[in-house]
Design goal:
The protein is mostly helical. Helices cover 62% and strands 1% of the residues. Strands 1-2 form a two-stranded antiparallel ribbon. Helix 25 crosses helix 26. It is globular and about 85 Å long.
Amino acid sequence: MSFSKISGALPVAVVVIFSSLFSYAEGSGQSLSSGDSLVRVIRDLNSGNEKKAKVDIGAISVPEVKGFSRERRNQYYLLDGYLNPPSSLSSSGIRKALRQVGRNVDLVFWRAYQGPMGKKYSGPSLSNRLSAMFPDSNYFHPEGGSGAHSAQALWRRSLSEFHRDHPKRALILWKRIYQSHPLSPEAGLALQRLPQAMPMGELLIPRWKTLASMGQKKVVLKEAMAYLKTSPPFPFRDRAILFAASGLLAESRKNEALALVEKGKSAKGAKLLSSLWLEECSAEDSSVMKKNCIHQFLSRYPLSLAGRSLANASLRASIAAGGLSFDPLWMPSPPIQSLPSGETSMWLSGLWFASHGEVERARDVWKELASILSPGGDDVLLPRLTYFLGRLDGMEHHLERAQRRYRKVMKLWPSSVYALWSSLACGEDCGSFAVTFHHPSPQKAHLTLSHRQRLLNLIQLGLWGAAWTDYVAYRDHLMTEERFIRYGNLSLRLDPVRKLVLIDAVLGRSRPSVILSRTESLSPSVISAFQNSGVPVSWAISIARQESRYDPTVLSIDGAMGVMQLMPMTALSTLSQVNPSLLEGARLNLGSLRGDYINALVGGLYLKRLFDHFPRNPERAVASYNAGMHSIVRWSGIASMDWDFFIEGIPYTETRRYAREVLWNHEVLRKSPRHLFVSGR
């Protein structure tokens, strides 16, 4: 497929001003009659009568469920899984839940963890496994307490036990507060009450695990190094070595980390040895040595989730570098295929085969992955997978089959970039595809369409508390994670005021009367600068939107400036080669590079060099602007691939996302009317 469909020039007016064009879904839930059996369940949940809801959903017969429409059947399975969560964790149970519940499956397993499943299993293994299964879930925060397990509740219980003359029970609770809620004020109070003679390793290891999950690796490194100086006994010494080595690697102190790892190799126990082995693999600089290290690790520990993540990184690097042989260990074993890291391995394996011309093997792997994924579930991997299966069909001239896949993506996932790509691949045969700007802010200022739909589904099913928890965590993830870890309150009952706030957030802004627009305006001087630089103007505008939303005041934490987010050294280097007359002034006053015209001019000149280097491949130029031309040149494995395979083969997550978004912006501009002007900023 040619990329020429999305490389058309944009007619540029003198003043171009963009308004908020973000489309949000109206409530799309299917209407239910008052006599519907599901309505009774939802009413019970809204009134807080969970016991009656269980009875009502249990009264719905199997033939009745089979007679439901697909949407109502999905609603039934979600309500049933919520009210009667599974009591055990098995591969068949996980697959069944994924197929039936789809994107809300994390809510079902969260309920199971708090209920019968949590009571059946003891220790942290269940929590760790569920956290690994759902790394992006707003319900699973590592070591986060909820309700009776929050720091405040544990502290109150400990004081109660102490005053009732149960010092041993109080001691257990104080240890738990210090280990599981290290940032809470109660942790300091608990530490004062712990006996001085207690083995510190018993206290510190769980505490470090919690701190590491919160991104506090510097604190962990400092404490672990100090603890190692006390010559601690086994097994605390080796655990401390692992935490310290991880912290040293995070600070690029490789030699010190490897020296510590060597000390820990005398330890016994598969879990510790595998962890040390992974740290050693991570520390390898040579790609060949790293790959060999990972191969040996996976040969011994094929079910390691941490090893699977490292294997995926190795597989991505091999795709980009054009590796000659496929390591069979890159393919996950069946027990972990339905987990996120296993699904990623299968997707990348198919991409590896496709990049090496083995279309049939790529199709087989991707079809197997499609059979694992829930039809109504993952709104990222499923549209991607469906689109690329269509591309493989097109390569083999099965055009009707390819078009069916493209239409499916456009219908089921219209807000996905792969819906746009499907419309480009299918052309006029699949009808027109409306495309508007999306992702108004990288700070999650607004809900995405898929998340809005998820919350709307939960609200429609009466699961208010779950929707509120998900909403708050999405809006302010860091603060919420800390709040969960300290005091997490995950009560599913919601007061009327919060219900109104949630309704306004999910539904209100889709109504014209309450839109709070965030305009994006592009000044005439920026347009003029792009034209004078000689760069394709439509592409420059698309990149400028992704870089700064056309805001000339933006200054990144790394020092990138202005509309085009120029790094000072890049700007000076560009001027020295193409416009020496401006160079001296820029050297004397770097701040001048933030001005609308000069910033856009220098950015356009730099971008023109990239487009000249990749004259028929604008997606390469776009990726170069984000990752640097030196990176693109190094990726020989994807150099000759079509534009969409090239983007998916990029080994940097940020650059893949960046390229997809810029392409989306460009298509909006290409399809927009000739006069795009609303009001100024």
